[in-house]
Write a structure and sequence with these properties.
- The chain is rod-shaped and about 45 Å long.
- The chain is built from one helix and no strands.
- With 32 residues, it is an all-alpha fold.
- The protein has one domain (1-32).
- It starts with a helix and ends with a helix.
Length: 32
């Protein structure tokens, strides 16, 4: 495992979390 590869995984996880949060909050706003 090279450090660059680990950084890519971390960046990917952050992007996934932000996307999930955006979709989650969008659905909440539509329900309210």
């Amino acid at each position: 495992m090279t450090p660059g590869y680990v950084n890519l995984i971390r960046i990917g996880e952050c992007i996934l979390k932000s996307l999930i949060c955006l979709i989650f909050f969008d659905s909440i706003e539509e329900k309210m």
